[in-house]
Design brief:
Chain B: It is found in: Cell projection, Cilium membrane; Cleavage furrow; Cytoplasm, Cytoskeleton, Spindle; Midbody. The complex is a heterodimer of chains A (356) and B (426). Chain A is an alpha/beta fold. Helix content of chain A is 38%, strand content 15%. Chain A has a domain of 239 residues: P-loop containing nucleotide triphosphate hydrolases (Rossmann fold, 3-Layer(aba) Sandwich). The chains are: A alpha/beta (356), B alpha/beta (426).
Amino acid sequence: MDPLRRSPSPCLSSRPSSPSTPPCEMLGPVGIEAVLDQLKIKAMKMGFEFNIMVVGQSGLGKSTMVNTLFKVWKSNPPGLGVPPPQTLQLHSVTHVIEEKGVKLKLTVTDTPGFGDQINNDNCWDPILGYINEQYEQYLQEELLITRQRHIPDTRVHCCVYFVPPTGHCLRPLDIEFLQRLCQTVNVVPVIARADSLTMEEREAFRRRIQQNLRTHCINVYPQMCFDEDINDRILNSKLRDRIPFAVVGADQEHLVNGRCVLGRKTNWGIIEVENMAHCEFPLLRDLLIRSHLQDLKDITHNVHYENYRVIRLNESHLLPRGPGWVNLAPASPGQLTTPRPFKVCRGAHDDSDDEF
Amino acid sequence: MGEGKKAGPRRARKELAKGRGDAVTQSACALGGTGCEPAAGSGRVRGAVGRRLFSGCLADEASQKMSKQQPTQFINPETPGYVGFANLPNQVHRKSVKKGFEFTLMVVGESGLGKSTLINSLFLTDLYPERVIPGAAEKIERTVQIEASTVEIEERGVKLRLTVVDTPGYGDAINCRDCFKTIISYIDEQFERYLHDESGLNRRHIIDNRVHCCFYFISPFGHGLKPLDVAFMKAIHNKVNIVPVIAKADTLTLKERERLKKRILDEIEEHNIKIYHLPDAESDEDEDFKEQTRLLKASIPFSVVGSNQLIEAKGKKVRGRLYPWGVVEVENPEHNDFLKLRTMLITHMQDLQEVTQDLHYENFRSERLKRGGRKVENEDVNKDQILLEKEAELRRMQEMIARMQAQMQMQMQTGDGDGGALGHHV
């Protein structure tokens, strides 16, 4: 079908008509919507990248959750025979998964050993270091004189934080960690292993966590300040009301009422992972993959990365500090003295800049 | 659980006990089974406690139903060769019933593992009526505290004074290095107090507040024992009987449960942690009891679910937790090991007390008395110090008095005219 001759009605609905501009149909279609197609084709050729980090104590089902989310059965969760490591380690696994012609390069960074020791002081430092390191790598690539066409993006787009289902409230460790990380990366807290809480307990726990987050000024994804318009706000408010999601992960299939479902089989019933009445895994999946994946990447690129970049460029004349902080390449002093103008893609970006 | 079909002497006694028993006051405790049929599997009360509770006092009725010869000896004094000391257990029993039993149970575990719920479920009470769960901000500042609540439970005339020692704040802090110091010092303090009482002059009314048993709650979410668990258990395994319990067991499937239990047992062995071992059934006990003991031993650590809510399931009301996918029944042995834990506690309450007395307390006592010499020296040193300090103070006061006297004399000399105004005495 000739894209230029499509009916003008989609054109009308996407733009609010003002009295001064004449309606589209009178002038004939311009064909702008063809751009969408071109973008789509390009994106499919290039493929998508998504980097996710899962943080939480051992045994909360992080690896199982990732497997359930992306239906990647290659990475086996650490068996029970493997004791949690003595210090916090970070290891990343990359998978390329494909669905209907769309390729996704998924990198999952796991953090075994988080919060498992007796003394968990500063157990978030390696994680922050890793995230900043990825920003630094991207920054270095961006500052080169001859840059690559497509800079490989290893920045962490989303950090899923697993809260143990105590049923009471956030623990001091959770609060410390969330406070620090929300300023650097998009954090989505979830209630792990939610099959140990009844529905009432879940709601009460959720409310208490939300209250804790508000009290300690922890801004989790989706952040209210980055809502672009009223539609976004409505959609995100619904999500914000349900965060943290109570999730259950499973990688085994069982037969329920003739259907094959992912779930956990116990003596008293089968917990279906994709059943909204049982747990909120579909909400998490939709948030991470189906609706907000691009948004996560955008916020990481436009807000968190920019903040990092500003800080780095402002202090580039100072001595480098700490591990993971690389000396900026001194090869192009011109670039350093005149920082490039900010990429103002979001109106809220300046506000958040002032905060930091 | 196997409830034998043969009418052993004790089983008949238990049935009689139910028929004759006094009304249950306060809350029906699990002491002798919750008054339900023996077939419900709540386990028979055995061991010395069981015998004390149920044997003997029902002897006369027992003889009518019994086909064994032992009880008939009680009532027929004309039997040749009958001396009568077979009645001693009755006397002991009567005395103990009058005296009542004391038991102190300590529960340790991270917050949110269901400790309070389990205690309430075990003893069918509400030990924490005004409980306020602290918010996140309070948790940050809090250190481990010890809270002891005592409740008197009476069942069929038998009184039990149960003290539950709770340890809120354990495992909450980011740095948990010091979180068991408070607990260990509490245990030592109880031992110390008992030692002091025992060595005192008036030993009639020694209150036994020593911790007889410690339920250690292991999180079902981990892959076994955490470093904190290991460190804590190693610190107290020589002071108190540890019973490891896997909390919130309804979050595990059967396979996961088995794996976790095995993993925990392996780790306990690997770190040489001495947990409480159930004593083997003696050879003169009947098969039922032996089987029960075997089952109990095989299920350690117990994986339990606690609840006091009554849910309607399959037409009858049971205690359980209602989920959208099913109901977890607390007292269903296929769902969790709650009944086994309760049986173990009741059946071996006496044994737990004995081990505390004979093993842990004696260890403590011998350590303490060995160190005793040094402690006495410290006291002497303190006394000398106190003496010196008092002398110094006395001297200071004397100097002050002398100064004031001198001052007064000076004032009197200068203000001779105003003699009347300076009427104050030293």
